[in-house]
Design brief:
Strand order of the largest sheet: 1-35-34-33-32
Helix content: 10-25%
Distance between the termini: 135 Å
Radius of gyration: 54 Å
Structural class: alpha+beta
Largest sheet: 5 strands, antiparallel
Number of helices: 7
Shape: elongated
Number of strands: 77
């Protein structure tokens, strides 16, 4: 190929010595809904809303829209000069004419002592406000002074005494006050002194605008007029004077200083270094304040042009006012210059100094004609190569046409050679064409890369090719994925990185034909990748939707990919990244919005999720009060919830995730800001709702709303309870009717039983009385008055007990034992102590708990004495034993008398005597058993010795309790009758 040695001079359309390095700002103006372009103050509340005080009222912004407030909404005036936030969550507003109001829970309140304020402030605005722990309001009017207004309206002048004019400020636990003390004897000697929490900066010139911020403990910034003072450790460490008055001071979370100066813009001092050359933002404007929100975004408000917002300053754009943004096609950094070409056929060279663009030169190539440059590369001999209609080489200010090509696409510099992918295959140049590998019908190439083995990788619209040793190979024949359209190629570790047009990126190892795909579903910004750049341990991926940083870790036979995505949420406003290059530790991006640079070690992902707010809740399309817990009747079962995630960096790109437990336990992702659940079935539901700016980092604590939709009454538990109660009442009514039919018969039978028992008891009582009176008579006849008196007294006591007990169906075992003991004492005396008796009671028997019929044991004892022991006449023994087996009480009456056989023989010789005691006892036991509450088993045993001789008699009574006899019964009254309940069984009162 013919070599052309013509040298073409490079002309300049324009040249600038310095360009402005700027963070990208979003301009917020009245066209977006801001009340006025004249902003005086700004702050963010706890819910995330941004508030702006303007000349035409208040503006509240949520990232989507503005809501403006004026006097018609409760403000005392429309000119809001200052805003303050107190620890009770109230936002205070100071107006131009010196009055105050505050906002709390959706309402505005006028300060009740505004008339006093207007007098103290001389009808001018309040510059500083502080609310102390006693709810006293401290004010510092713009025209001077410090006043405390207590909650009951008392006013105290808190201006300190000072000999010379000073800037005075006082620190509190959660705030501060400051003002300028007017001069008495002006002393221009400048010094700083501190008394506990009070500070004096002496020798300050007069100035209308006064500002103060606390940087850290013992470190402060103070401005009066156009002077700035940096105070630290009780010393003045720096003083700066600006051309105009300072309107605001701010120190951000990274300890950078922001100094707002009227008509000059905002001076930015990185790392609080006031001696460094500052960056100037909003140059020529009058900024009034800088503010950093909860997500670390920056707000710069001005008095003439609204508000400017930037989510971050870690990505820097380069602009020159009056020049359109460049739509970058290709970039290259070499020899301290940044070169780039644009889609509108411009070729630009930028001088770099410490990673800043110091000048921009628009180059004219090829005799002043518009010249489209497709790609730019550099070689180790400091040459810059431009690929257009020709291949141009620029070295030492001289331009040479190296070759004239019909169609060439991409170039790559390796050492001193330049590699060109064209429609004929691969061309390699130094100063002339030195090597050519021709390929017939070679497809359009979008990327070219040369590795250290001098293998040339070319990415085309049909897939990936490899050129080495004068031969080429189409890799698509080895792997179907490698037939994908390729946009860029680089090498990262042992992998060839392939950027595709729709399939993400490929990690390809040619040695073992290993290929791993990393795409959008794995976390990539987009599957459409324009550029890739390997930087030490990081791989930077430029897509049509932002930038990704990738780290890879090989674990055994698998490849783990770790991805971090960056977009406008992080301050990268340009979404489409076309090309990437690096100089030292600074990376430059060529984008559709111009050149952007950043420092990789400083760049951080915005991981603060949006503030999530519930705007309103509707039930059946009627708005209700916002709460966390609700109960709705069954007919109110259509729930609508309106909400928003406040993220000024993401704007309307905020995404939401929700699940309605009780309906569907799966999380659902949506971009909508409302949910509607129609015709929900009765039940308990819990809505969990969270938000994210990028779909990766979500709020850790979702909003939780619990609500219950009740059943229809006919399907409710209460309905079934009432129905069951009605059925029960019906059943009880039938039960009651059945009782009423049998009532007379049952009453008669029960009264008959009671009458028979009383008759039996009355038979036993005269029998015992007759015998006792005979004993008393005997003592009287024997003139033994003492025994007769004792016997008569004991007999009277016994009769009283028998009388009392006979009135009751059941008495305690203890009461029965006491009665029996008294009875045995009397019988023992009557038989001249011819027998003794003893009681044996098990320890586990509670005699006060067990109840038995009265006088049930006495007939057995009487029979044992009269027929068993009396014939012995001496050494008789009567033993009463009480034992417990489960719930059965066993009573054993045992005597050592003559036995039943001899007793019967003696009884047969008595003419006219008929014993009725035992017979009466047996009849009584039968009657008690028929009632069904107590079952008594009666047994008599004859006792014999080893020789078969009678040794006495044993009688056993076993009391089995079917139900515990109680005096108190529980009842309900149904249809005028008492229904009693015992142990789960109902008994009707028949008395």
């Amino acid at each position: 190929m013919k070599k052309i040695y013509s040298v073409i001079l490079i002309f300049y359309i324009f040249s600038t010595s310095v360009t402005a390095q700027q963070a990208e700002f979003k301009h917020i103006s009245t066209e977006m809904g801001l009340a006025s372009s004249e902003i005086y103050c700004q702050l963010q509340d706890s819910a995330g809303y941004m508030w702006f005080g303007t000349s035409r009222g208040l503006s509240r912004y949520d990232g989507y829209e503005f809501k403006n407030f004026t006097q018609s909404d409760g403000l005392p005036s429309n000119s809001i000069i200052k805003m303050f936030y107190d620890k009770l969550g109230r936002i205070w507003f100071a107006t131009y004419d010196g009055v105050l109001s505050y906002y709390k829970d959706g309402k505005f309140y006028i300060f009740e002592y505004n008339d006093t304020l207007k007098y103290l402030s001389k009808n001018y605005f309040i510059n500083v406000l502080y609310i102390d722990d006693n709810q006293s309001v401290w004010i510092m009017p713009a025209l001077g002074g410090i006043y405390e207004i207590t909650k009951d309206g008392q006013v105290f002048n808190r201006m300190p005494e000072c000999e010379n004019r000073s800037f005075y400020f006082k620190e509190f636990n959660n705030g501060f006050i400051y003002t300028l003390i007017p001069d008495k004897n002006f002393n221009d000697s400048l010094f700083f002194k501190t008394y506990k929490n009070e500070h004096y900066l002496n020798g300050i010139n007069k100035g209308f605008r006064k500002n103060f911020i606390k940087v850290s403990n013992g470190e402060f910034l103070v401005s009066v007029g156009e002077f700035l003072y940096h105070l630290k450790n009780n010393k003045i460490i720096n003083i700066k004077k600006y051309n105009n008055e300072i309107s605001g001071l701010f120190c951000d979370n990274n300890k950078n200083f922001w100094i707002s100066v009227l008509y000059e813009g905002v001076y930015f001092y990185e790392n609080a270094d006031l001696k460094a050359i500052p960056e100037i933002y909003l140059s020529g404007m009058s900024p009034i304040a800088v503010y950093q929100d909860h997500q670390n975004g920056y707000w710069l408000s001005t008095t003439e042009n609204g508000v400017y917002y930037s989510p971050s300053f870690q990505f820097i754009s380069y602009k020159r006012f009056g020049i359109q943004l460049f739509n970058i096609l290709s970039i290259n950094i070499s020899n301290g210059y940044l070169h780039f070409s644009t889609f509108d056929r411009q070729v630009v060279r930028c001088l770099l100094n410490k990673h800043r663009i110091m000048s921009i030169e628009n180059l004219l190539l090829r005799s002043g004609r518009d010249y489209a440059v497709l790609d730019i590369a550099s070689t180790s001999d400091s040459s810059i190569w431009y690929l257009g209609k020709e291949l141009l080489k620029v070295k030492n200010g001289k331009t040479s046409i190296i070759d004239t090509l019909a169609r060439s696409y991409k170039i790559f510099g390796k050492d001193k050679n330049i590699y060109v992918a064209s429609e004929n295959g691969l061309n390699i140049y130094c100063d002339t064409l030195c090597k050519q590998v021709e390929v017939e019908n070679f497809p359009t190439a979008n990327a070219i890369f040369v590795d250290d083995d001098l293998c040339v990788w070319i990415g085309t619209i049909n897939g990936l090719y490899a050129f080495k040793d004068n031969t080429y190979e189409f890799l698509g024949e080895k792997n179907e994925l490698l037939k994908s359209r390729v946009n860029d190629i680089t090498k990262f570790n042992k992998f060839i990185i392939i950027a595709t047009n729709g399939n993400g990126i490929f990690f390809y190892n040619p040695k073992d034909n290993y290929l791993k795909v990393f795409e959008q579903k794995n976390g990539l910004n987009s599957n459409f990748v324009n550029s890739v750049f390997a930087d030490n341990n990081d791989l930077w991926i430029g897509t049509n939707k932002g930038l990704s940083k990738i780290n890879i870790v090989e674990h055994y036979d698998s490849l783990q990919v770790f991805n971090t995505r960056f977009s406008d949420i992080d301050g990268l406003y340009a979404s489409e990244i076309k090309d990437i290059d690096k100089i030292d530790d600074c990376i430059f991006l060529g984008t559709t919005q111009g050149i952007i640079s950043f420092y990789p070690e400083e760049i951080k992902k915005n991981i603060i999720p949006p503030e999530l707010i519930i705007d309103s809740i509707l039930v059946n399309d009627w708005q209700i009060e916002i709460k966390n817990i609700y109960k709705f009747p069954y007919e109110k079962n259509t729930i609508s919830i309106f909400f928003k995630g406040i993220s000024y960096s993401a704007g309307n790109k905020v995404v939401y995730k929700y699940k309605l437990e009780g309906f569907d336990n799966k999380w659902v992702t949506t971009a909508n800001r409302f949910l509607r659940f129609p015709n929900l079935l009765p039940g308990n539901y819990t809505l969990l709702l969270t938000s994210s700016a990028d779909g990766i980092v979500w709020n850790e604590k979702p909003i939780k709303i619990n609500f219950r939709i009740k059943n229809k009454f006919s399907k409710s538990l209460l309905f079934y309870v009432i129905l069951l109660f009605i059925i029960l009442l019906t059943a009880l009514a039938g039960f009651s009717y059945r009782f009423s039919v049998l009532q007379k018969d049952l009453k008669f039978k029960r009264r008959l039983m009671r009458a028979e028992q009383k008759a039996l008891r009355s038979q036993m009582n005269p029998h015992f009385i007759f015998n006792a009176l005979n004993s008393i008579r005997r003592y009287i006849l024997e003139n033994d008055s003492d025994k007769a008196d004792f016997y008569l007294t004991s007999f009277a006591t016994l009769m009283r007990k028998v009388l009392d007990n006979s009135k009751q169906e059941y008495i305690s075992l203890e009461e029965e034992i006491n009665t029996l003991k008294l009875y045995l004492e009397l019988e023992k005396m009557r038989f001249d102590d011819s027998f003794t008796f003893r009681f044996e009671i098990d320890e586990n028997i509670k005699t006060t708990v067990f109840n038995i019929p009265p006088m049930i044991i006495q007939p057995i004892i009487e029979n044992a004495i009269w027929h068993g022991l009396a014939p012995l006449q001496k050494d008789g023994l009567l033993k009463l034993s009480f034992k417990k087996q489960n719930s059965t009480l066993i009573c054993i009456v045992e005597d050592n008398g003559i036995g039943r056989e001899k007793a019967a023989e003696i009884a047969s010789r008595r003419k006219g005597h008929k014993s009725t005691g035992v017979q009466n006892l047996q009849e009584r036991i039968n009657l008690i058993n028929s009632v069904g509450v107590l079952e008594i088993d009666y047994k008599v045993l004859d006792l014999y010795d080893v020789n078969g001789a009678s040794t006495g008699t044993s009688v056993e009574l076993a009391f089995s309790y079917k139900a515990k006899p109680v005096k108190k019964r529980y009842h309900i009254r149904i249809f005028g009758k008492n229904i009693y309940f015992r142990f789960g069984q109902a008994f009707k009162d028949l008395s």
